[in-house]
Each structure stands twice: as structure tokens, then as C-alpha cells.
Fold:
Amino acid sequence: MANINELLTCWGFGKQADIATANLVATMWRMGNLNSKPWSLNPVTEDNATETGKGHEFPTALYKSHYAPPGHEISKYLSAEVAAWAFSFALGNVVKSGSSPNFIYTILPILGATNTTGLELPYLSYVQQIRPGGSAVLNQMMVGCAVKTLKLSVTGSPGRASAMLSVGLITSGKYTEPSGITMPAETAVHEIQAGSMTLTINGIDYVTAKNFLSLEWDWDNNFRSGFYPGSGSQDGFQIQGRFEIGDRSHGFKYVARYDASSTELTKLRALTTGTAVLVLTNDANNMLTITEQQLGFQVVELDNTNGIVTVAVTATPQYHATNGLVTVVAKAAFDGICQ
Amino acid sequence: MKIETVTMKSPAGELREVEPTPENLTPLMAAGWHQAPQTRVELQASESQEAK
Structure:
């Protein structure tokens, strides 16, 4: 018997050398997770029910097939460190500059044609433990994890949950048990709440106008299956040997108050595009800036939120000819993220 | 005061040192440039060391 609040997790802030080579503990940080569900390996078996010669339709034997771990969510209050980590692993092209205590990670989505690892993003290892030691309840390290999805949510409610990051991981099926990892001390982070936000979308400063309610920024790498002849196996079950980006999707939605000066409908009709710049700040060394390089409006819908007329906008991030899709600048007092 | 630079590498292998502002980095990274692991000076020193 073990309580789920005993679950310890740590994962790579640095990247693995390749999908099969685990992080060293020196490149891992320990953090909690608001998602309390442990990550399951989910080995999959097959049977012989459909084979002839048995005289009946029922299975008589089981066979090993593959590991099919489900996606695993890391749900965190927004912080400078986790933002730098999540966007770096989700988008893939990272330039690190600055020095302690002001490291700057400039992050753009990879281009498959020019990325040094082709269609593959950086990989990391993920460790989960409950009472590690001689009679551990759980002590596993998932090797070859990648960030599939990323969602940043900003809401009007106060507190830590006003700005949240949800990171969807997938893993190859390769694992180490026991993990061999001595859990490091918990990493201190610089949390960022929504009260610090500044936001300009398509020429409108929503925060100065006190009109903004909520925002969702999301990303999905839509990985292709990593099973192929030679992809590897563990315990006789096949594992995945690569995660290649598919047709990635990127969403940007927000809700604002609607008044006589609102321009969203006009801009949709005119097919107007512009930049969107979102800034969330803890202090000068710990902040997140997201610049959508060319944003148009796809759906503009009037609604009411708690009795106030609002407008819900589903925007379409477009690829700018020079500046690409999106630029993320994450400043964090933490070295080595995705390096 | 010395201005910090990072070394960027183009898909064709060209190295360029730039001040790491979003305005400088964004068009390069959008065109497929990546951060080279060392500065050009370090690279040249490393290459000359290897030549010996």
C-alpha cells in the first residue's frame, strides 16, 4: 500500500544524446506534478484466437507484441524554468545565451529540412519513484521521451493556477528498472502568475484596455509511429526507435470583453493579420515572451461571460516569410535547459 | 563592455557570430540556422589544435 502523494518524479532538463541513451542525473531536475497518475508502461500482448487448427475460436496462448505507454501529462503552474524547458523540447530549435542568473533561451520550431536531427526533437528521460530502495513500490526510468503536446492557459482567476502549462509526453517503451537514479533535491522555480501579463494582438493592447479574460496557446507535434523493423525491443516487446514530427498543429484562442471599439469582427472580415506578443513576468531574469509572427482571425464569436458581452476569437497562426511561425524567448535563472 | 555573441551555423555550414537578440536570431532560426556549440574563435583554436 502506498499513497499517491509519495510519488516522486524527476526528468531531464538537458537532452539525451539520442533516443536510447538516458539522461545522467546531473542533467535531471526533480519537480512535482499536478497530474498524480503514474506513467504506465502498458506492455501489449497478442493471442492466437484467429489461427486455424485448434478446432475452436478461443485463444490458447499469449505472445509478446510491443510496449504502448500512453501519453503522460506533466501539469505545472507556469514558471520560468518549466516554460523554458517545455517550449525548448516541444519546438526544438534552441539558442542559449546570457549568463547566471539571466539565461536566455530563444526557441523556434525546427524545420525538418535543416534540423540536425532531421524530423526528431530532443529526447529526455523521466523517472518515477515511490519509496525507492530495497523494497520500492515504484522505481522506473522511461528513456527516450519526447514532448508531443504543449498547452499554455491563462485565466482571469487569481493565484498560481492563473497561468498553467500542460506538457504531454510520450515515450519509446525503453525503460530502466530500478532506475539507478538517486532523486536530486527539488528544483526551486520562479513561478509566474497571470497578473503580470502584457498582451498585444493584431495591434490591440488588450491589457491596458482592461478587456482581457483568458487565453489558450497550444502545440501538437503529431508524432509518427516510431515502430519500424529494427526499432528495438525490451523484454521481448518491441519499442519505438524514433519520434518524428508529423503535420504539427498550433492553436491560439482567447476571450476578451466586447465593446464599441472592438475590432475583431472588422479584422476578420478584412482578413487583417498582425503579430501577437504575449509577455508573462516573474522578474527581469525570469519571464516568458511569445511572439506570433503573423496572426489572423478564423472565428470570431460573440458570447456572454458572467453577464458581460464578450468575444471569443480563434486565431490562425500563419508562417511569416522571414520570421517563421512563432518565436519564444524564455529567460530563466537556470543553466543547461535542452543543452 | 563586451557585447555577448552566439555563433550560429547555417544549413550550408556557414558560421556567423550575432548578438543574441530575438530580432537577430528569429530570421536566422526560421531559415534553419542553429547554434553552433562553440564560438568561432574557439572553433578555430580547436581546429588548429587538431591539425597539430
In short: Chain A has two helices and 20 strands. Residues 7-37+63-332 of chain A form one domain. Chain A has one domain: 7-37+63-332. Chain A has a mean pLDDT of 97.
